[in-house]
């Protein structure tokens, strides 16, 4: 079951006109929310980021927070899986093709649920390989825009190289991954790039920094140079569906000894514990 403009229906029955500005211009924003045991994880934070993205593209939020919570709850109930990946998408609606905003047009609201596929224990144990590339995206990467062509091309570089993700560098500094945030460990300090216009403010990124603070790990939020990335003791990637994974190879070079490091081994169970505690509340 999916949700489209006020109605729940099977995905096969869902239709969007070809003049939808999402289709024509990529003029819209989205969210991906993990659902564990039928409970959306960090829902308020995702809805806050949605508002930030909508503000960023100057599109009025079609729903109040309470309405979103109710609609999302209903979609979760109408789907079978206990653990789901909820995709939510708002576009500027259907209008004659013209770049400028169309007046008086209702936005298109689409949501779907897919089974949540998290990382296997083997992947957590082995870590993943990534490749690096120049971050050639625009200067509003803080907006979770559906226009993802640069991210698509960047992620494909990883797939072509048999790697899991592409780590992005802009002007000699780390920004994030093609669809994830990146953390760096140096001298037992957990480093994270600042939440600015060059990266998506990850919900998982915030969870990791909160857990690190609670565990009294040393953290620093600051710009991280390419040299610091390439000589790191540990690299991690985070996202709502991948949670937290160790990066064990960068551009075919091992990160330290090529195995998940001690701080990762400390953080991974903290993340799982936190998730389980929140879900049981
Ligand atoms: N950066 C980008 C470019 C992403 O697409 C994602 C995943 N949607 C993230 C970071 C991680 O964000 P989150 O932890 O909220 O999933």
Automatic annotation (TrEMBL):
Gene3D superfamilies hit by this protein: 3.30.470.10, D-amino Acid Aminotransferase, subunit A, domain 2 (3.20.10.10)
Keywords for the protein's UniProt record, in alphabetical order: Aminotransferase, Pyridoxal phosphate, Transferase
Record's GO cellular component terms: cytosol
GO molecular function: transaminase activity
Alphabetical list of PANTHER family matching this protein: AMINO-ACID AMINOTRANSFERASE, D-ALANINE AMINOTRANSFERASE
Family, as annotated: Belongs to the class-IV pyridoxal-phosphate-dependent aminotransferase family.
Protein name per UniProt: Class IV aminotransferase
């Amino acid at each position: 079951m999916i949700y489209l403009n006020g109605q729940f229906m099977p995905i096969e029955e869902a239709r969007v006109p070809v003049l939808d500005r999402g289709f024509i211009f990529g003029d819209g924003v989205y969210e991906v929310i993990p659902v564990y045991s039928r409970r959306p994880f960090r829902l308020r934070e995702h809805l806050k980021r949605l508002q930030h993205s909508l503000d960023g593209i100057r599109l009025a939020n079609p729903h109040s927070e309470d309405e979103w919570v109710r609609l999302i709850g209903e979609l979760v109930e109408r789907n079978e899986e206990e653990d789901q990946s909820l995709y939510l998408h708002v576009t500027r609606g259907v209008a004659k093709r013209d770049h400028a905003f169309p007046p008086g047009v209702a936005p298109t609201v689409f949501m779907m649920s897919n089974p949540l596929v998290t990382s296997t224990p083997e992947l957590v144990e082995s870590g993943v390989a990534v490749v690096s590339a120049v971050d050639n995206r625009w200067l509003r990467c803080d907006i979770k825009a559906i226009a993802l062509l640069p991210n698509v091309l960047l992620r494909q570089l990883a797939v072509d190289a048999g790697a899991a993700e592409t780590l992005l560098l802009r002007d000699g500094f780390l920004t994030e991954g093609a669809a994830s945030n990146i953390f760096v460990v140096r001298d037992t300090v957990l480093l994270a790039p600042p939440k600015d216009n060059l990266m998506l403010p990850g919900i998982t990124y915030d969870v990791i920094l909160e857990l690190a603070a609670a565990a009294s790990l040393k953290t620093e939020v600051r710009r991280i140079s390419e040299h610091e990335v390439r000589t790191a003791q540990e690299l991690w990637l985070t996202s709502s569906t991948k949670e937290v994974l160790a990066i064990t190879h960068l551009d075919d070079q091992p990160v330290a000894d090529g195995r998940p490091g001690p701080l990762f081994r400390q953080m991974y169970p903290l993340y799982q514990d936190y998730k389980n505690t929140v879900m049981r509340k």
